[in-house]
Amino acid sequence: MLPLLLLPGMLCDAASWSAQVSGLADVSEPHVMAYGLADSFEAMADVVLAAAPERFALAGHSMGGRVAQEVYRKAPSRVAGLALLATDYRGIADEAMRATETARRDGMLAKARADGMDGFARMWVKQVVAPANLEDETLVDAAVSMMARQSFESFAAQSLAGIRRADYTEMLDRIACPTLICPGALDNLRPVAIHQEMAARIPGSQLVVIDGAAHMIAMERPDAVTAALREWLSHL
Length: 236
Prior knowledge:
single chain, 10 helices, 236 residues, alpha/beta, 12% strand
């Protein structure tokens, strides 16, 4: 079976993909990747590629979606299929935008430093999970526990990577493998409109919007995300 590399988003780990690891094991060989303390998407992609088999399917969530785009940029012939979930493709347009982005991320790090990773996670979960889904205690506890066990150092490295991010606009036109674009309908961080732009640029891509989910779509609507990935894998 084809190896399926699953790339977590910021402050996420294998827990964010747990439903897909079990739900897709009959049609792929799922492996959740980690980035260590890599502090750029280029370095994260190098970590992934060094641990990856020669050819694989690749699915990335949020920050992991940007890493997935960088992996494809570096090694397109090794990627059998690409799935981009709740993510973005745009870089930082100018220095004013860079200053604003840096200030925002510095504020997040200051919150984590002051309140601890657990305190930050309890605040951040309200930004990344749909309001109705916050009533699901099992979901919220899993998301908070996952984010709280990440180290401050890895959070800082991932934040720096976000500030250093490249723009993949032109590369999207060159993606030549089966590609799934999968946003959450209620995601305010990475809205559906951004994914529509990506789908319009990537030849032959499929856009599947996950209803009832915000940014943490694979945890919020695991069955729907697994079904979308299963369909995409069937074409690889």
